[in-house]
Design goal:
The complex is a heterodimer of chains A (470) and B (79). Chain A is α/β, with parallel strands linked by helices and 470 residues long. Chain A has helices spanning 25-35, 53-64, 78-88, 152-166, 183-195, 209-217, 227-235, 258-271, 392-400, 424-438, 463-469; strands at 13-16, 22-24, 44-49, 68-73, 92-96, 106-112, 115-120, 134-137, 147-150, 173-175, 198-200, 222-225, 248-251, 274-280, 287-291, 305-306, 311-315, 329-334, 341-343, 358-367, 373-378, 382-385, 388-391, 406-411, 414-420, 445-450. Chain A has two domains: 1-379, Rossmann fold; 382-468, ANL, C-terminal domain (GMP Synthetase, Chain A, domain 3, 2-Layer Sandwich). Chain A has eleven helices and 26 strands. In chain A, the strands form six sheets. In chain A, strands 6-7-5-3-4-8-9-19 form an eight-stranded mixed β-sheet. Chain A has a five-stranded mixed β-sheet with strand order 12-13-14-15-16. Chain B is globular, with a radius of gyration of 11 Å. Chain B is built from four helices and no strands. The longest helix of chain B has 15 residues, at 36-50. The chains are: A alpha/beta (470), B mainly alpha (79). At the A-B interface, helix 7 of A face helix 2 and helix 3 of B.
Chain lengths: 470, 79
């Protein structure tokens, strides 16, 4: 089985921990190999981790051993974690010592730094398809049980494309600005390990002075961000920061406004930095398109063209290929990085390749005369709140379970819910409860009371009208 | 409203907390609401409330309720 890490330069640094410890590829390889005995080929492992050394070591060891990790964020609630466990039946779970105690079914079998590795007492975990290599949840830690299934080739081919178009070599050094279990964060890690480059592992945010000290002292050359990261950079007046080694910024995880993109592009130009707008979805491991820095100004607002090895086109409602420019249709992608499919339960982990390399993205786009794609909207009803997908229908069903009639709408980074009949006292409780259930920040959420929801003749909620009035 | 009242109100509104928790132990990331998103909102609310525009270092170093009081002094705002 091919190893997806480039081990050819054992003396080069692979990882730099938050404490400043430098881990070479040689050392990392030793660490990973010493953990291999913990994992069996074809068993399901939950890795409940964060951007730290142990998480990366265990992730690599599990994959090297042919085990299949599901990556989950350390901030997952116990309720959500237990529902994932019930649904998917992992044979092992790596989790922070302080996080949770498994009294039923699992016993602590190994200790790695701040983590325990729990094993199932009866040793019998889910059966997996032999082509399966990795699992990610579709919407971060919101508790949606839906997973995306990846083959090793999905992950490797996408990492290789990214290495190629960003020109990542051994001299590149990234820093973790996104959760490791979020597909964009994972792809930064994978592509750098694939290229023999290095990554600074930190959980710190842009608002922590240590983050910027680390960028400077460790000579970080690139940073990745969702639109909200760029909002923060602009707020921090990034243009005034002196970070001479930082050469590349990438943006994905949702559409950034043209005005904001323009400001970032101007700053990057003045600083001699490269800025890449990129497009992807977890379902494509995740990258599908990128806009080269030389086109950022001429094609502002565009997601660019397909990544190396992939192909993009548009289809109309009947599934026919659209050839005329300016006509909007659903964006479809094909490439070796299109995942195998979804899983909703343990049985689905036995499934093979459902998608056969073709992904209907659900995004509506147009293509200009020169082959650049522009996202114009979405077919499905979901918002991206700080890069994480939130299904509007799921929000409505969450209220429906409480027998509250609600219509969810809004824009990216701001979820709005209009509710019929609810008193003001209850409102505040619901805001907190919903923010908690969906794991979004309360400030990204507005619930308003309406006497009655606007409806079309068909009886369906008139969402355009709702978005206009709020 | 006094400066102190305005200052407290920003914290109470941004992080949905009660006044009695606001002291030197009320620090960045001590409650779930004071994450990066909450920090952005709080800085914007303080800038609005006092008609100031904060420097990069001050936004990054604004690590607690108490530090913030010192920071605002630089902008001529006495809490």
């Amino acid at each position: 089985m091919p190893s997806f890490v480039n081990w050819s330069n054992p003396l080069c640094n692979a990882l730099i921990t938050d404490a400043g410890e430098e881990v070479t590829y040689g050392q990392l390889q030793n660490d990973v190999f010493s953990l291999l005995h913990l994992f069996k080929n074809g068993e399901l492992i939950f890795i409940v981790g964060k951007n730290d050394l142990t998480t990366v070591q265990v992730y690599l060891a599990a994959i090297e051993a042919g085990a299949v990790p599901l990556l989950l964020g350390g901030d997952i609630s116990s309720i959500n974690l237990f529902s994932f466990i019930d649904l998917y039946n992992p044979s092992k779970i790596l989790i922070n010592k302080n996080k949770v105690n498994f009294s039923n079914g699992y016993k602590s079998s190994f200790e790695i730094d701040d983590y325990f590795l729990y094993s199932k007492k009866d040793g019998v975990g889910a059966d997996l398809n032999s082509g399966l290599a990795l699992l990610l949840a579709t919407s971060g830690s919101t508790g949606s049980p839906k997973l995306v299934r990846f083959s090793l080739n999905n992950i490797i081919s996408n990492a290789d494309s990214i290495v190629e178009y960003l020109g990542i070599d051994q001299n590149e050094r990234a820093i973790t600005t996104l959760p490791f279990n979020y597909s964009y964060g994972m792809s930064v890690l994978n592509s750098h390990l694939r290229a023999g480059a290095s990554i600074v592992l930190t959980e710190r945010t842009f608002f922590d002075p240590s983050f910027w000290r680390s960028v400077k002292t460790n000579g970080v050359t690139s940073m990745a961000g969702v639109p909200f990261n760029y909002e923060m950079l602009l707020k921090l007046r990034f243009e005034r920061m002196d970070l001479p080694q930082l050469r590349t910024l990438t943006q994905a995880g949702g559409k950034m406004s043209v005005a904001q993109t323009q400001r970032v592009v101007e700053i990057c130009k003045a600083k001699g930095m490269r800025f890449y707008t990129m497009y992807g979805q977890t379902e494509a491991s995740p990258r599908m398109a990128f806009l080269s820095p030389e086109f950022t100004e001429a094609k502002i607002g565009s997601i660019g063209r397909a990544i190396p090895g992939g192909r993009l086109w548009l289809e109309d409602d009947q599934g026919a290929v659209i050839s005329s420019h300016s006509q909007i249709g659903e964006l479809v992608y094909s490439g070796p990085n299109v995942a195998l499919g979804y899983a909703l339960n343990q049985e689905d982990l036995m499934r093979g390749d459902d998608w056969c390399g073709v992904l209907h993205t659900g995004d509506l786009a147009r293509e200009d005369e020169e082959g650049f794609f522009f996202i114009e909207g979405r077919k499905q009803r979901f918002l991206k709140i700080f890069g994480v997908r939130i299904s509007l229908d799921a929000v409505e069903s969450w209220f429906a379970e409480k027998e509250i009639v609600a219509a969810a709408h809004g824009r990216d980074d701001h979820l709005m819910v209009s509710i019929e009949c609810l008193d003001n006292a209850q409102l505040e409780v619901e805001v907190k409860a919903l923010a908690n259930a969906m794991q979004i920040h309360p400030s990204a959420l507005t619930i308003s009371i309406v006497e009655s929801l606007p409806r079309l003749n068909s009886g369906k909620v008139d969402y355009p009208c709702l978005n206009k009035t709020h | 409203m006094s400066n102190k009242e305005k200052y407290i109100k920003v914290f109470v509104d941004c992080f949905s907390v009660t006044e009695d928790v606001l002291n030197e132990n009320f620090t960045y990331q001590c409650v779930a609401a004071w994450d990066s998103v909450g920090h952005m909102g709080m800085i914007a609310a303080l800038e609005d409330a006092f008609g100031i525009m904060m420097e990069t270092e001050d936004i990054i170093d604004f690590g607690s309720y108490t530090i913030g009081i010192e920071t605002l002094k630089k902008y001529g705002v006495k809490i």
